[in-house]
Amino acid sequence: MSTYAGFRPDITPLDAPFWDALRRHELVVQQCASCERLRFVPTELCPHCYSASTRWKRVSGRGRVYTFTVVHRAPTPAYQVDAPYPLAYVELDEGPRVPARLVDVDPGAVEVGMPVEVVYADVADDLTLYRFRPAAR
Length: 137
Description:
9% of the residues lie in helices and 39% in strands. It is mainly beta and 137 residues long. It has two domains: 13-58, no CATH class; 60-137, CATH 2.40.50.840.
């Protein structure tokens, strides 16, 4: 596998289960064990009931574009090679909104409300990233 030149996450004990799941090609979000609300990004306390009791829940990986932008000038040369490319917030069918790079779509064809599904990018032996592509509904 080639060397990944993009940004690498600083994986902490709090979010390690998320990154481990991505390597298995699964998308998970944190769930409060008390009020059962789902959340992304992981936090130590539930922002709704303040419980410290959490678990990880596998989600469908399906959702809709909530909002988006098209990047024309990327932050580094590693990303500029793909410009222009769309970045979005995807509202998962289960509720949480996640930031995501959209792939397999012309940037001019992206629309708010567009159905999308998760895909996995194994960018290095030790790192898998999630992306979203258009999905048929």
